[in-house]
Queue: 3 jobs
Job 1
Amino acid sequence: MPSTLLTHAVVITMDADRRVFSDGYVQMEDGLVRDVGPASEAPTGRPWTQVRDLGGRHVVMPGLVNTHDHLSLSVVRGGLDELDRLEMGTKMFDALRVIDGPASYDGARCSIAELLLAGVTTTACDEFGHRDRPAGVLQACREMGICTLFGRATMDSTDETVNSQTIPLDFREAPEDAIARVEELRRDYDSPLIAVHPSAVSTMRVSTEMMRALSEYAAAERLMLMLHMGADRDEQAESQRRYGKLLVEYMADIGALESQVLLAHATWTEESEIPLLAQHDVAVAHCPESNAHEGDPISRVASWLAAGLRVGLGSDGANTGNSQNLWETAKLAVYQQKTRERDGLYGSAELGLELLTLHGARALYQEHRLGALVPGRAADVICLDIDRPSLAPRGTILSNLVYANDRSAVRHVYVAGEERVRDGELLGYDVEELAARATSASATVMDASGFGRDVMAKSRFRWVR
């Protein structure tokens, strides 16, 4: 494996003391961070694979951690904008029937390129729908070398009372079949960079039997249980109608919070449920952009953090988050909490940096190996050019990284010590070709699902052919 020495950079370690070296170095070897410190103490005389003198013009920091995504869905980017929630669900199921393995592969490669170029080195992702969709996404993750915690999602709810929570018959499967599919993907794709986990599409879209089976399997195999919770505005009411309990109360009551649990969104959970989430050490993937896209309330991030919850940031899929730029996600997350708390003093850009890195690692239960430039952790490292206009002046670089950053400032990206981006270019791939393949796959999906006709029909702009 390569050994790399980065020198003469502002090094933001995100370690326990939050040390920042104004002129520092980072040493990477065997896929791990070996050492960090002042540049004057950098090791010499070693047969490095690469020595990069950054000349005092770069920030070096941990790679960003994305805690929620649907990588394949770049193929329907823009197709779900400004749709009624019920209509969106119907159209999404239509699309999911035709987003097959090849379309998922092309969509995922486009999303991964966007993530890597923005400095994201780890992403969580869950996928459901067409049987071949997960394999298409996992193949793209393996080839492009991004660290991935993948949830193979399932659903089986047969309750037909609330339209937004019902599932078409052809998407339903039995618990034993869902777990068998997770097992199959684990055998085929688990590696040092990829881990497959069980996932439920959402709390109310799986039966109690299914949720218990997934939870017990996750606990037995020491895996995460990944699921959407509180993403739909009527989900709480449906939980109380079916079970007489709030969402978190229901999950605790059936024993489904005993494993490591990662909740996507949790927007519509209640303040009264937070102590129960904290008691079970539950993690939340906060997705402020996709929440805003749907017109949902600002989530209780300040309360979650105050209670000690594991909270990271998620871009969500390009179907609702649209962008895969986690920098803008961090800015929005901090700004929205100022608004929610009605306190301009709440939070800081430093909180944004924590959410992007070590808090994200905690949300994925990976704080022992990700999220900080600490000896022994993964050499997931990014370098940003601080001479960009958006990052000036240098004296306020921590603020500028979160509140003013342009992702084009990301120049070099390493995942487990392997260089994936050099001088702002994705190594080994033609990004124009990746975009073209995703566009071609999108055209097929849009045509087969009827999405394309609907997108054109609702536009107020006059298209001239």
Note: The chain has a mean pLDDT of 93.
Job 2
Amino acid sequence: MYTDSELQGMTCVSVTPAGHVLVCGSLSNTILHVDSEGKMKLATLVSRERGGVWNPVSVNYNSATSSVIVGQHWKKSSMCEE
């Protein structure tokens, strides 16, 4: 199982059409990009400090708009340009 100090309260895992794995950390207020085996963090895509997510509960990639859509517990979804 993948563990990282930037990932607390994992709520969602999503795989993009290109095979990128995105993970929500609801308690850590982060969206991470991890390798396809789930063993290593490749990047912190969004955090409360970098983009303002608050309690993310879902994440998905929209290939038509090239954006990451984040569902948040306390407010409406937000889009993060790639």
Note: The chain has one domain: 10-75.
Job 3
Amino acid sequence: MNAPATTPAAHHPEAPAFNTDTNCTGRHADPSLSLGMIGNCAFSALVDGRGRIVWCCLPRYDADPVFNALLDSSENGGHFSIEVEDLAKSTQWYEPNTAILRTRLYDKHGHCLEITDFCPRFFRLGRYFRPLTLVRRIRPVRGAPRVRVTVAPRFNWG
């Protein structure tokens, strides 16, 4: 998949205050640090404007990063990518009053894919549960975009 030409991304009509429009140039994390954060108070992850998890330390905040493409932009950087072939633009926003992050990826043919990212946290039996779980839901919004999912964790980094 080649990097698309610079194209301004459309603002999603449902997007609240936080929004990241990405022109989708380059292969690795956006140096502007325009990143979304998902987490559940036990661990967290940073998601770039193209829906790539570029930083995540597991199983805790102070552990070694499993996904580290934010700081290691070489092919050795760990990441969890959901890529659309012929990507043209992307939009990113949080669901109102939640830590649920949505990213829409649009290709040059008018197809659209939505990624929903979150880490569950819930109250049950008198306490909060924060499972070591990262949810990434992928659904087509329009057409049938061609998708490639890459899970490339790295260990013992740094």
Note: The CA atoms of residues 22 and 49 lie 6 Å apart.
